[in-house]
Design brief:
heterodimer; A: 777 residues; five-stranded mixed β-sheet; two-stranded antiparallel ribbon; 23 helices; B: 225 residues; four-stranded antiparallel β-sheet; disordered C terminus
């Protein structure tokens, strides 16, 4: 009996001891996490001051960009996306860490992650907000962003991107908010009357009456379950869609089916690294060493190593398969990456960003907190470089017979990038000041103190991964069984039914109204009563083209086009390239817009600013164009031009009343190109280029009436095409151009193929518009 | 005397060169006159294949075989005018040449059958009026695969002068098409957002309903509240 009493006494003492240790541990956790909410030190303000200073500098840089246009960047026609879009992809990538990782770990009920889920979810929300800024910054006409709402097109990958990002951001914020509710309630109750009124109001409102009843717990659990299931495919879709912005183009290095997987894996990889870094910073700043231990670092390190292995595998798969075949563009790309101007960055990415982190984590000696942080830092830098390489190196591969362009970001671009990082840190800092950075209630429920750090407390082991009862079992708490939540199967089916019906009917109603508001017709092949539509086409007889060597002038087609359209320097809407011939020597290939019948540029335009007219001519409405340059990325012929600055045009050009078929006067921040002069043809005249050609090498015709002329001879178009073995540029792409070429090298006008070179194009105006600047392509 | 001899010799030399020098045209037998007849449907269907024939014969009415007959028309386009060869055929044993070509002309045109002559027969041609005015489009382009909801024509910028609505039911259906444009994406978005709303509604409703019924004893002094 005595023994029994002694045992009861011991058990009671042990229980009381455990309860006391646990209560002290909880108190320390709350104190640490809520400390920033209770008071603010000077260091915090100093930190904010630094961030605001960087941000102000970035705003100044952006004001320069707004004032002078994108000419203040070093982006140009041939590498038209650079630092901004690379950073956009990077931030979208690290946003994956958070919600996706948090959701996966929650679904798999990984206990160790409870103290870091909040940080991960913070990263997602903030990274997405910062990421969304970069495409807007990159736009030539940010003032026309509203066009995305008014004229948005489903067919554009950019529109998919925006929809996916908005959906993911919304889902992530909801997913961030749900587990914050119990902590809001805790803040409401803990901070007390001495807290500022705004803080009390914020936490009271945000806690939405949370009192921790079993029904509320169950409701929270179910709501989070829904969100954690939904958010995983949404998160995967976001980066897949981001990759499609590139992979949908016809550029060799980007034309890959592997891109979606590559981007998602890379996103999770960089995201985990971002979590590790943020975790380390907050652990250090907020003295959370007791709650964020080596366990979290090592487990995240293992995840990082797994992703490193996956990234390594994907890189090998990508470069071995494409490198083995060595198509022309790919050969150039691989050479520039591995041996050329990008070799340093590329090998840092491969060795420093994939191999070294893997080794750091694989080795027990370096698998420490510091080692894992070092690996994460390497990964973050390397993944930013990888984004940069995808875009800049990918765009550098020449599309036509021109020397590869070069790009190094300007001070404006670097400043804005620094501002992006500063904004990211600023928002995270403000979040950390306003809200608990650790999910207190989840840590308590799922984890309890580390056994090693709280010896004798075995309560933690009582709470399994699925046990949602509080670890700190106060004797005053009445353990009531959780009541059934008031959502029945019937109600669930009702909601699902409503969703299904809505999914079918909603879009029709929504977009019908939008179409009405724009008042546009979708009919592209309409016929005005009593009149057949022309289907304009062009045949360029290379046998008659000598690059105007015989007349001793620059190519006259280009000159006439520039003069007729007031094309700003350096735009050559019809450019005479001089590619080599197989047996030596060269030919001259006048290259206007190919007026594709299956135009990639039209497919990708997010606002319908570029479109196929019923006559088959691809036109641009510069008054609608938002300057995103997706069409320039999509065009495989390098036939689109951007007004990077104030266009250098003669003053008289501004007197012209703007018309889509004229494209004059040029508008800063918009795209221009050859329009096939349908206005001249309608008036019974040849396009400027055909008029200007001294050798009558350019035929302009109508596929509808099967006729063409070069201003001297009229030919039956179909017979002319067949009898002269005409071809298209890059026929394999399936773009179906309306420009045909008769093979030759000027032999009919007496040119020897080995007489190379032509005179450079000149822009004739002596006086240019005030404030205009000339740029290079 | 010498002068006379010299003159005679010079005249002889000139005559010699005129007669035998390279490139000199010799007198030939006169070419036989020919006749040609052309046959074509007067009002063919524009855009369809037009079958025309010509019969070539000599002045006696004997058919001429293995001769090339060109079918041409004089065409004007963007300020230029030329004789355009539409097709060419070789006559058979009956002197008949039959060809087919696409009638892409927007109205009536003068079709000419032309025999350009050879070493035996003289050139000849005949003309007839062919065709009728029709506004139906001839050139058809259709690229890629139609995927409902995705690859419909884009919303274009205003081209009011050349765009017009089709009348009747077909026009009505066409006018509905933009509304359905992109519906697969919209449906997915709608489903995801509905799930969001479902989760939000769920938690807000439960939180509100429980807040009044809460048992004060269930609130812990520490930890979860």
């Amino acid at each position: 009996m005595d023994e029994l009493n002694q045992r009861d006494d011991f058990t009671g003492w042990q229980g009381r001891f455990e309860t006391r240790v646990l209560a002290e541990w909880q108190a320390r956790l709350e104190d640490r996490v809520l400390a920033p909410l209770r008071g603010t030190g000077w260091r915090y303000y100093a930190w904010l001051g630094c961030l605001l200073a960087v941000l102000s500098w970035a705003l100044y840089a952006y004001s320069q960009q707004l004032q002078y246009g994108l000419i203040v960047t070093n982006l140009r026609d041939r590498i038209s996306w650079g630092l901004y879009i690379a950073s956009f992809v990077f931030f979208i990538g690290i946003s994956h860490a958070g919600t996706l990782l948090s959701a996966i770990l929650r679904v798999t009920r990984a206990r160790w992650q409870m103290s870091i889920t909040r940080m991960a979810e913070f990263i997602t929300g903030v990274a997405l907000m910062v990421a969304a800024l970069f495409p807007a910054i990159d736009m030539g006409r940010p003032d026309r962003l509203v066009n995305m709402l008014i004229f948005g097109r489903w067919q554009s990958p950019l529109m998919w991107d925006i929809l996916a990002i908005i959906t993911y951001l919304t889902g992530s914020l909801i997913y961030l908010y749900f587990p914050l509710i119990p902590d809001f309630a805790l803040c409401r109750d803990r901070l007390g009357p001495q807290a500022p009124a705004w803080q009390r109001w914020l936490f009271t409102t945000a806690a939405i009456g949370w009192k921790g009843t079993p029904a509320q717990r169950q409701a929270l659990e179910r709501a989070m379950s829904i969100m954690m299931i939904v958010i995983i495919p949404v998160a995967v879709s976001v980066h897949t869609v981001v990759s499609w912005v590139f992979a949908m183009s016809l550029r060799d290095p980007l034309n890959s089916t592997l891109f979606g997987v590559f981007f998602v894996a890379g996103a999770i990889y960089s995201g985990i690294a971002a979590i590790i870094i943020l975790m380390a910073v907050l652990r250090w700043v907020m003295h959370l060493e007791e709650f964020i231990t080596k366990t979290q670092f090592v487990n995240l390190g293992y995840l990082l190593a797994t992703l490193a292995a996956i990234m390594g595998y994907l890189n090998i798969s990508e470069y071995v398969t494409t490198g083995y075949k060595m198509e022309e563009g790919i050969r150039f790309h691989i050479q520039q990456l591995m041996l050329g101007p990008f070799a340093g960055l590329f090998w840092f990415y491969i060795l420093g960003g994939i191999l070294l982190p893997l080794l750091l984590i694989a080795s027990a000696r370096t698998r420490t907190i510091k080692g894992i942080i070092a690996a994460a830092l390497l990964v973050i830098v390397a993944m930013w470089i990888e984004r940069y390489l995808i875009i800049v190196a990918g765009f550098r591969v020449p599309l036509m017979a021109y020397p590869p362009a070069n790009y190094s970001p300007s001070w404006v671009e670097w400043s804005i990038l620094a501002g992006g990082f500063a904004l990211f840190a600023l928002i995270i800092s403000i979040f950390a000041k306003l809200f608990p950075v650790v999910s207190i209630w989840e840590v308590i429920e799922h984890r309890g103190p580390e056994p090693a750090e709280a010896p004798g407390s075995s309560t933690a082991s009582h709470t399994g991964p699925g046990d949602h009862q509080p670890a700190a079992t106060n004797t005053t708490v009445r353990q009531t069984p959780p009541p059934q939540v008031s959502v029945t199967r019937r109600q669930t089916l009702q909601v699902l039914g409503f969703m299904a019906v809505g999914a079918l009917i909603g879009p029709s109603l929504l977009f019908k109204s939008r179409t009405k508001s724009t008042g546009l017709s979708m009919q592209s092949s309409d016929v005005t009563a009593g009149q057949r539509l022309r289907r304009w086409a062009m045949v360029i007889d290379l046998r008659n083209c000598d690059g105007c060597q015989s007349v001793g002038k620059p190519p006259q087609c280009t000159a006439a086009c520039i003069q007729g359209h007031f094309a700003p320097e350096p735009m050559e809407w019809i450019q005479v390239y001089e590619p080599s011939l197989p047996g030596g020597g060269t030919q001259f290939v006048p290259t206007p817009c190919q007026q594709c019948q299956n135009p990639p540029c039209v497919n990708v335009c997010p606002v319908g600013a570029t479109f196929s007219a019923p006559e088959g001519v691809v036109l641009i409405d510069q008054q609608r164009c938002i300057g995103c340059r997706l069409c320039m990325e999509a065009c495989p012929y390098d036939r689109r031009f951007f007004n990077w600055g104030e266009p250098p045009i003669p003053p008289e050009a501004t007197l012209i009343k703007y018309d889509v078929v004229m494209q004059s006067p040029a508008i800063r921040g918009t795209v221009m190109k050859c329009d096939f002069c349908p206005d001249l043809a309608e008036a019974g005249s040849l396009p400027y280029c055909a008029q200007g050609c001294p050798n009558h090498a350019i035929y302009y015709g109508d596929l509808e009436e099967d006729v063409a002329t070069n201003g001297r001879d009229v030919v039956k178009l179909s017979r002319f095409l067949s009898e002269n073995s005409t071809y298209h540029l890059k026929e394999n792409l399936g773009t179906q151009p309306r420009v045909y070429y008769v093979p030759g090298h000027g032999e009919l006008v007496g040119r020897d193929a080995f007489a190379t070179g032509r005179l450079p194009t000149k822009w004739p105006w002596l006086e240019k518009l005030k404030g205009s600047k000339i740029w290079t392509r | 005397m010498d002068k006379i001899v010299v003159r005679v010799l010079m005249i002889a030399m000139v005559l010699y060169f005129l007669a035998f020098a390279p490139g000199t045209v010799h007198a030939q037998n006169p070419l036989q006159p020919t006749q040609i007849m052309i046959g074509a449907p007067a009002t063919p269907k524009p855009g369809g294949l037009l079958t025309v024939q010509a019969v070539l014969a000599d002045s006696q009415g004997h058919p001429i075989s293995k001769a090339i007959v060109y079918f041409t028309t004089q065409q004007k386009f963007l300020g230029s005018t030329s004789d355009v060869v539409l097709a060419q055929g070789v006559t058979n044993a009956s002197g008949q040449a039959v060809v087919q070509f696409a009638d892409d002309f927007s109205g009536a045109f003068a079709l000419q059958a032309e025999f350009r002559g050879d070493t035996q027969y003289a050139p000849v041609n005949a003309t007839t009026q062919v065709g009728a005015v029709d506004t139906a489009q001839v050139y058809v382009e259709h690229i890629g695969v139609d995927i409902p909801g995705f690859n419909v024509p884009p919303v274009g910028a205003p081209m009011a002068s050349i765009q017009s609505a089709q009348p009747g039911i077909s026009g009505f259906i066409q006018s509905l098409w933009p509304a359905m444009n992109g519906w697969p994406i919209a449906a997915v978005l709608f489903l995801v957002w509905s799930m969001y709303l479902f989760a939000i509604k769920f938690i807000f409703r439960t939180a509100a309903s429980e807040s009044d019924e809460v048992d004060a004893h269930s609130i812990m002094p520490r930890g979860l509240v």
